[in-house]
Structures are given as C-alpha cells and as structure tokens.
C-alpha cells in the first residue's frame, strides 16, 4: 500500500486499536495500517510520544527531551526506516560520550572505534578486540539484536561472536581493561542497564549500545525527540490511521469490537485493563513481572554551558558521571537494594551540542538523570541537590551558571506516563530472565495469551530505546495471527 491508500480501504478491513503512543505504539500502528487495517491509537496524555516527548519547562526556545534523548539504536531501525520523508532528521555531536574522572581527565567515546581506542592508551588493543568486529558488521547484526533474544539467528556465527561476552557480568568484562579510564568508560555505558554489575547479562545492553553507536553514532533528533513521534504519526496519517489523545483506557470494554489490540503498556497496566480475560498463566507472569530501579531528573538552563574541568567533555552529547568503575558498580548495587547512593550514577544530556536549535542564544538546556531506588520519595529540592552536587563535582562553578531548572521526581515520571511507575523508565527490570525472555518466560514475548491482544512496550524485547522495534515485532505477530497479508 502506498501513502494515501488508507482512505480507500475496505469497510471490511480488520480493525486495530493501539493503546499508547510511544514509539513502539506508533511503529505498531504504522505496520498495521500499511497492511490495510483500520487503525486508531488511543493515548491517555494530551500529547503523543511517551518517552520521546519534548517540552519547554525552562522557557520558550529551550527544548528539553522528556526521557529518551540519544538514539544509537534508532538510526538503522527497520521500524523508523524512511521517516526522513516525514521530516525526521538526525544530528551528531562531535564526541558521542564523555566520562570525566576526579583527576581532571576524561575518557572519550567517539563514533570511530580507532579514535576511541587511541584515547585509551594501553587498553587500545583490548577495546578494538571487544567492539571493532561487531561494530563493523552491525548492519548484518542488527536484525538479530533488535528482536527477541531467544530465536534462530539469521547470522549465527556473527550473533554468537557478539553474544559470547554479553553473558558476563559487567564487572567481570570490565577486568579485560587495565586502565582506570577504560574501565570507567565501560562501567558508565554498562550502567544504562540499571542493574548490578555483578549480575550475569549485565553487559548485554552496554555492548549493544557500543556496537550500534560505533556504527551509527549517538545522534539526537533535530528539534527534540518528539520529532520521532511526529514523523511516525505523519506516516500513520498518510496510511489512513488516526490518533485520539486524552483517552485513558481502563477497561476491556473500551477495546470491544477490535480485531487486533496492541498494548504499548507495561504488564501491570495490561493486567489492570484485561484482568480475568487473560489466561491464568499470563496473569501470574504479569504479577511476577519485576520493576527496575527508579530515576529522577533535573533539566537545567545553563548560561554558557557546563564548565567541565576536562574541556573536551563540553563537546560530548552524553556525559556519564559516576567516577571510577568500582564507584559506579557500588552505586548501581545500592539503588537495586533500595538504598539511595550518596553519589548516584548521573547521565547528563547536552543535546544542544549536536542540535543548536534547542538553545536560546548562549543559554543551553541540559538534562541530568540520577539512578535511585524504585519509588524513592525524594522531594524536588532533594533531587536538585543530589544531581547538582554530582555535576558540580566534575564542573566546579556549575551552580553559578544555572539560570533555571525543572525537576522530575520518581512520582513525577509516573504522573505523565504510567509505564514509568516508580520512576522505572525502562519499563521493567532488565535482569537476565526479563531481558532475554520478556514478561512471559518460554512464551512468545509479544503474545499476551489472549487472542488478538499483544504486548508492544519496552517490557518486551529488544527493550528500551526509541527504535520502535517491540511494536514492529508485535504488529507483525498480530497480522500473522489474524491472517492478514497472506
């Protein structure tokens, strides 16, 4: 079907409802609409996008991403292919990621493996050995990485080469390096999994990010991450689909009559909606589904940018603040035990380095996440003090440059996105079982067990990110079950 054909679809076309308009929900909706389904997306909030929303809490002209800000796994995602036609543009920072240390130095992650390795001194060869091969072959590897972990790989030897080190705990894999700089760089990337670094498979998300990033970089979407949602929505509209905002689905009765229902929701939300309609085994699995740790966030307006001690850090899109590898591991372990780290791991986003349109003159928007226990009840003042102190540690004088800030607590995340309950921005713990198998072990991770209903959120493989692939896979499964397109 070509764009525009949706308006001519048959009145007997299968009807599909998509609950939630994050990138997974919108990607699923586009797949269904392209297969001649009559598609409606229902979004509880006033605006679409989920984790890819962008807003201006610091004043007009200062664009701040709500959650997802950098997209190494989105550029080559099949779910987002062709969105340039609908206005999506990518922009890359000069340096993808920086990891400053207390001695004033910083480890720098570049798109180039060779350039990154050259900055790691004695660990250059070890770094190349770990990531060069898979990164070079990422276009061939991507179809296997962006789907269920348990599957028959298209390129089994390549997938095995990538997968072998991912089973290791991040702390164990980090021992391949000899320098504090290389170990810290690795620990910061591994911290994206928000799991204890002593846990098996805690290397998987970090290695996936490095592999994709060395192939595609760590770009931002020009104009804010909302550009991803806007482009997907424009594609859906071209295919005849529609979106209704401000519609909160609380009952299965609201879904009656649809042939296909795709849920861009966490398992707990699906359980609340469908209840006893779900098979008992699914109900038990969804009740057992484990949440991850929480996040809190401060968005800053910074006059002149952040005054990092290591000047190169100012050229990086992403900055990891956590000190040494043992310090990061200790902070992540504490948060997972329910204890607030004195110095939590903080991820800083300097999106305007790549996309100057987000700044207002010399005032730059900077966002900063801290990893905290799930549901940590810290007040806005406590959150601001916690996060600002960690930035000030590596950028003395930062406070004096802040002209305004906006805080999101753990409850604040949940207030505008139920999937992020307790500040769990990854839609569930990415522990070994849930990372590999999703919420229903040994079953299709996208199937709910109720015919016609499919899970399409970051709770399902391949997990978090603005790549839309959980939705893409769920929609393909739904079409196959419905016999559409055969």
Automatic annotation (TrEMBL):
SUPFAM superfamilies: FAD/NAD(P)-binding domain. PANTHER family: DEHYDROGENASE-RELATED (PTHR10668:SF105), PHYTOENE DEHYDROGENASE (PTHR10668). This is Phytoene dehydrogenase-like protein.
């Amino acid at each position: 079907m070509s764009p525009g054909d949706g308006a001519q679809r048959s009145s007997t076309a299968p009807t599909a409802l998509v609950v939630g308009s994050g990138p997974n929900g919108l990607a699923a909706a586009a797949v269904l609409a392209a297969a001649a389904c009559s598609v409606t997306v229902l979004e509880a909030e006033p605006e679409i996008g989920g984790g890819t929303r962008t807003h201006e809490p610091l004043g007009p002209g200062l664009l701040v991403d709500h959650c997802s800000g950098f997209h190494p796994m989105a550029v080559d995602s099949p779910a987002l292919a062709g969105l340039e036609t609908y206005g999506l543009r990518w922009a890359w920072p000069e340096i993808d990621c920086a990891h400053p240390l207390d001695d004033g130095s910083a480890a720098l992650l570049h798109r180039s493996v060779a350039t990154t390795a050259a900055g790691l001194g004695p660990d250059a060869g070890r770094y190349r050995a770990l990531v060069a091969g898979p990164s070079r072959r990422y276009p061939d590897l991507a179809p296997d990485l962006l789907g269920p972990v348990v599957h028959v790989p298209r390129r089994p030897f390549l997938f095995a080469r990538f997968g072998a080190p991912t089973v290791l705990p991040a702390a164990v894999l980090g021992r391949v390096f000899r320098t504090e700089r290389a170990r810290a760089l690795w620990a910061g990337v591994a911290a994206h999994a928000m799991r204890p670094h002593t846990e098996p498979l805690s290397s998987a998300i970090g290695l996936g990010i490095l592999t994709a990033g060395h192939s595609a970089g760590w770009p931002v979407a020009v104009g804010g991450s909302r550009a991803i949602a806007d482009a997907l929505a424009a594609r859906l509209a071209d295919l005849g689909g529609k979106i209704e905002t401000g519609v909160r689905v609380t009952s299965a009765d609201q879904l009656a009559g649809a042939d296909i229902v795709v849920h861009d929701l966490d398992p707990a939300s699906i359980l609340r909606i469908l209840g006893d309609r779900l098979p008992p085994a699914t109900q038990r699995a969804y009740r057992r589904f484990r949440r991850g740790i929480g996040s809190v966030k401060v968005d800053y307006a910074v006059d002149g940018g952040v005054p990092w001690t290591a000047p190169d850090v100012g050229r990086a899109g992403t900055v990891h603040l956590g000190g040494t590898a043992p310090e990061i591991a200790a902070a992540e372990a504490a948060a997972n035990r329910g204890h607030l780290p004195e110095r939590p791991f903080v991820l800083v986003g300097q999106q305007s380095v790549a996309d100057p349109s987000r700044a207002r003159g010399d005032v730059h928007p900077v966002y900063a996440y801290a990893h905290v226990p799930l549901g940590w009840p810290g007040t806005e003042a406590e959150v601001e003090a916690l996060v600002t102190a960690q930035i000030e540690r590596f950028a003395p004088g930062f406070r004096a440059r802040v002209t305004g800030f906006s805080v999101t607590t753990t409850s604040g995340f949940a207030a505008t996105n139920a999937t992020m309950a307790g500040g769990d921005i990854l839609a569930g713990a990415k522990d070994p079982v849930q990372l590999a198998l999703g919420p229903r072990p040994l079953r299709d991770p996208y199937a709910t067990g109720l015919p016609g209903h499919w899970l399409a959120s970051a709770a399902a493989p391949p997990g978090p990110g603005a790549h839309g692939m959980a939705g893409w896979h769920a929609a393909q499964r739904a079409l196959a079950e419905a016999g559409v397109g055969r």
